[in-house]
Amino acid sequence: MKESHRKDSDLAADSASEKFGGNARFTEKAKGRAKDRDPREPQKPRRVTRDYLMNYATWYLERFAASRARLEKLIHGKIRLSVAEYGTDPQEAEEWMKNVLSVCENAGFIDDTAYAKGRARSLLRKGKAIRVIAADLNARGIASDLIDDTITDLKHEANQAAYEEVRGTDPNIAAAAAYARRRRLGPFRRPDQRDEKRDKDLAALARQGFGYDTATRIINGEIDDLNDLLSMIDGI
Fold it and tell me: Would the pTM of this model clear 0.85, i.e. be above it?
């Protein structure tokens, strides 16, 4: 009985070996090397080729939204490492990068206009001030004229989405209300905590880039009034 069980086990092991490449010993050795590797030891960079850059770009864009400038910065980092490690021709690698970026743009994988608008809307919903949104887009390599157009469109969208009673209101005020709701500040706190936490809540809005008048209006406001303002945020 024991012999039969042993043979069955051996057959199962042989079957698994064939399924995963027919070399169970090699797999065990690979596992052993992985265990022996010092996790603090930096991995060796990959040698850059045009195909590698294309694969990297598509892999990244499948997982993250990015501007052209952001992707270019990441690819530049890969190229620098390959030049230092393998002596890759930097001019040839630059040509590969330009080709990859053009292919991604033509295929619609990179669209700075759509990216900027989507990110601006997302940040406004999170309660970010307009100037903070503009600074964020600038840091991500969006061109200044596109930032201006994006902010103009964002303000228009917010105004169109607003209840009639608050149309024409500065969207910064609505953004401050959205941040207060998200962090449960001011009128979104328990009533017994509002007075005690007032100064702390004002400071929290100030750190987000909102002026004193805006912060005071939100922290001293009532939820019904703020819900009207929040229509500018929730409707975009």
Answer: no
